[in-house]
Write a sequence for this structure.
């Protein structure tokens, strides 16, 4: 039941069931089931509600969501010196801020994630339903919702939480089979989501560019009469969405211009000193990360399933597979032939996964074709995806392995299974159906194994930057534990600190260095490494005194010091006054906080 996008109005192929227009009641029920599916799967799969922060970066975005104007008033000069990179991510920050204003901190976090899940699954469901049937559409939903990479990305306030959804939804809309008169509407939705992805994180720009290049090449070959019109629709929508984001940025955050900060961010990250700090010069690190084999495995399975004469390959399947292959190639070039750490940093590489999930769904749908003409059997692929995820989340433990030999063997198994499934689908139905079930288990299960496999222990490799390990293994069947409590406390911190009383009233933080992991979100709220003292209270070192003299903070936020009187005494040369103190507590997470005014610096600054 493969339908080309430019032939969607033609009758179905001989031997294929013709889709009937559902009654209005059935359509309403179907829509409701799709809309509630993220909530149902959240509880069924015990998806982890939040992900452990990989550093202070997510919290640097949380403060934009909670209290952007006061944060910018205090730290605008520091942002300029660091490229202003956080404020340029309005594609994520604008809707997150609106969700916070409407629902509050923790409820707003989950409401926005529900919206992001819908952005990914609704276009994917419609695409797969049109290409195959409702059952394959349901399978696409389960594949997206059970992806450990997507679940982990959604679990923090880092902008990849939005990028993964925007790119998945945009690719599905771009490939959507539809009537000619509705083509522009789907293109506009795709362009809007692509634009939001780029303005959420500039790392999405190469992925969007690769996708647009493939789309243009296919249009030029198959529908050249639509190329100019489609280009105008895509460009106009991008300009409109960019302008709307500028207006929203000005109203919600203060600055209207986020384009210049984005350019400054790119220039900042391209400085040799910054590149040296973040980019590994030794490529062997990739051999130890089995989850990075997933894109190759899925695209290989797509190739084994679909690649024959290109003219016979329907446009949606060709576009999606080729676009994801181009995205992988572009990221590979940027990582290994350029100096961008787009693969070694998991919050950048996660941008590949939205498209990869769509490719996996389309491939599995094609391989399940022998099952699709049976009213009950057609639901087996979706049930298998769910069952495999449930089996793993019941006991989320796998042995550690790398690329060689286990990882590459799994990739080969996926590719061979897809090739076998494609060949056997032409034989007698009973054998084809049994083979389709076995193939589905391999093609769907192996990428999950590669994603959640632990890393092998190894010695430090020369020339390799020690990047944070993504928490994919606990995304299914995991518990947020104290993560929600810690996030709630972090979002209460700006209210305790209060508003600045004069322009550029700087704030520094002082906390026990041994507790940096527990306090990472709280110190990240106020720029962490940029605005913290170097030692643990109450010991004020000469370096700390230099930092205070250099930064002249009017206020000092002290967290969880074991001896606050001694801490206050250590600050005596700076005329300290305790403004307020509190205990921030949620569940089992508790933090003592003191806000101290440093009078010597208050008098140096204008009031």
């Amino acid at each position: 039941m493969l339908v080309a996008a430019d032939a969607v109005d033609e009758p179905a192929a001989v031997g294929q069931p013709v889709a009937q227009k559902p009654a209005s009641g059935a359509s309403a029920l179907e829509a409701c089931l799709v809309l509630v599916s993220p909530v149902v799967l959240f509880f069924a799969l015990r998806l982890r509600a939040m992900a452990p922060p990989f550093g202070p970066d997510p919290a640097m975005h949380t403060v934009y969501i909670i209290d952007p104007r006061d944060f910018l008033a205090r730290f605008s000069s520091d942002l300029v010196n660091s490229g202003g990179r956080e404020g340029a991510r309005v594609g994520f920050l604008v809707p997150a801020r609106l969700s916070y204003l409407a629902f509050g901190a923790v409820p707003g976090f989950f409401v926005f994630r529900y919206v992001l899940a819908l952005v990914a699954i609704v276009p994917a469901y419609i695409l797969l339903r049109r290409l195959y049937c409702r059952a394959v559409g349901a399978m696409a939903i389960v594949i997206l919702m059970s992806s450990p990479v997507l679940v982990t990305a959604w679990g923090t306030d880092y902008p990849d939480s939005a990028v993964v959804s925007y790119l998945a939804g945009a690719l599905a809309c771009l490939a959507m089979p539809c009537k000619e008169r509705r083509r522009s509407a789907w293109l506009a939705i795709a362009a809007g989501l692509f634009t939001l992805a780029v303005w959420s994180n500039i790392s999405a720009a190469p992925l969007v560019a690769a996708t647009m290049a493939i789309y243009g090449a296919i249009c030029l070959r198959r529908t050249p009469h639509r190329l100019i019109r489609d280009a105008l629709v895509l460009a106009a929508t991008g300009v409109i969405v960019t302008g709307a984001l500028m207006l929203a940025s000005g109203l919600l955050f203060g600055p209207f211009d986020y384009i210049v900060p984005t350019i400054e961010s790119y220039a900042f990250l391209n400085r040799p000193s910054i590149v040296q700090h973040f980019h590994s010069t030794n490529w062997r690190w990739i051999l130890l990360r089995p989850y990075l084999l997933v894109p190759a495995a899925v695209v290989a399975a797509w190739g084994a399933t679909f690649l024959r004469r290109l003219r016979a390959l329907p446009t949606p399947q060709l576009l999606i597979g080729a676009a994801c292959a181009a995205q992988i190639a572009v990221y590979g070039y940027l990582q290994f032939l350029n100096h961008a750490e787009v693969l070694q940093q998991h919050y950048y590489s996660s941008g590949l996964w939205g498209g990869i999930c769509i490719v996996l769904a389309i491939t599995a749908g094609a391989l399940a074709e022998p099952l699709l003409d049976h009213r009950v059997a057609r639901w087996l692929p979706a049930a298998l995806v769910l069952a495999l995820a449930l089996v793993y989340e019941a006991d989320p433990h796998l042995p550690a392995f790398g690329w060689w030999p286990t990882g590459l063997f799994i990739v080969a198994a996926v590719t061979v299974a897809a090739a076998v499934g494609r060949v056997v689908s032409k034989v007698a139905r009973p054998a084809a159906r049994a083979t389709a079930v076995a193939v589905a288990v391999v093609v769907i299960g192996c990428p999950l194994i590669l994603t959640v496999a632990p890393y092998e222990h190894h010695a430090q490799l020369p020339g390799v930057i020690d990047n944070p390990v993504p928490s994919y293994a606990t995304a299914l069947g995991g518990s947020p534990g104290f993560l929600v409590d810690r996030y709630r406390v972090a979002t209460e911190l700006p209210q305790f600190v209060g508003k600045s009383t004069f322009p550029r009233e700087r704030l520094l933080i002082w906390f026990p260095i041994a507790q940096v992991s527990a306090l990472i979100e709280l110190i990240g709220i106020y720029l962490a490494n940029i605005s913290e003292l170097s030692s643990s209270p109450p010991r004020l070192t000469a370096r700390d005194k230099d930092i205070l003299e250099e930064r002249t903070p009017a206020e000092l936020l002290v967290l969880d010091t074991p001896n606050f009187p001694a801490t206050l005494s250590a600050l005596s040369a700076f005329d300290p006054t305790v403004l307020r103190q509190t205990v921030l507590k949620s569940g089992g997470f508790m933090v003592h906080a003191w806000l101290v005014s440093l009078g010597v610096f208050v008098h140096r600054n204008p009031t």
About this structure: Residues 105-131 form the longest helix (27 residues). Confidence is low (pLDDT under 50) at residues 1-20. DSSP finds 25 helices and four strands in the chain. Strands lie at 507-510, 555-559, 576-586, 589-598.
